[in-house]
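Now for one record.
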Amino acid sequence: MSKNDIRKIILLAWPFILALLVFISVRYAVHNSRFVDLYYSTGIYPFIAKIVSGLSNLVPFSLWDLFWTMTIVLLVAGLVLAIFRKVKWKWFALRILQSTALLYVFFYFVWGFNYFRPRIETRVSWEKQKPDEAVFRSTLDSIISHTNSSYVSVAPSDYPTIDKAVEDSYRKNSKAIGINYPNGSRRPKTMIFSSFFAKSGVSGYFGPFFNEIHLNYYLLPMEYPFVLAHEKAHQFGITNEAEANLAAFVVCMTSDDQRLKYSGYVNLLVYFLSDASQMKDVKDYIRKIDKLVIMDLRFQRRHWQGLRNYTLDKVQTAANNAYLKTNNIEEGVKNYNQVVALVISYYHNTTRIDRSKR
């Protein structure tokens, strides 16, 4: 075999070799969460986030939305060229496989290994809270009371100051929720294809390839602070959806800004009411919710139902479910609602710590 032959093999195979190495690393990471947290999540990733977010923040629009749009265009163009025999099918297929392998490598390098870090209970040394219906009911009562008392009207013109308030609260709560601050910078960007994502029921998402936070144009003002804080949690390396919801709630609830407080409580209340829906006396709790809050919740429901395409929603949910399960979130999309248990645990451990300081 000549040197030219060896060079050609290397040029063809190197993306697959890298992908294999990453695959082996992922298998190792699954069983070594503390190693991942020490060397990747709190070591390498904050440096990556600083560099990548710093570059992407120079651009006001979504680089990821642009990237996957161009990718689709190139795939269609390549397919047409292959059909008309302008390029060989073998060459076209090989380039797709190489590109897929490189995207797989890049995803885990720039963010994906965070999926294998320890859960928040381990990271912040929480005492495990046993499931208890009485505690759930008490917490639900408290959430309803705080939602009622924190009610405030939020307007789109408030968004810049809300962003600053979310950042300030993340700085204040960084130790409590086990994150590195500042971990780069976070510039919220509006989804280019907000209408499509709204049909799929997606209010926001974090784009790991360019370390970007995306919010849907159709997001309601009452949702904005909570969803913004949720997506920022992902940028801080929190991959678990329930933990991202918890972080969003803590950041909103502990803020001095009334708009954050209301958004945190009212959006968390939706998750609690979902869990309470099987209780025989759930209507008794609903009657405790103020009319203005009820109006907001009803409007929120009608708003997203009016935008939703149920076929796209089912496809998106199935894809997200498969994606989460593939990346060490065994519960899949059910993970979002597990924020209820985390909030109860948060209250339990915060109270326990406060008692120990007395």
Observations:
- The first helix runs from residue 3 to 30.
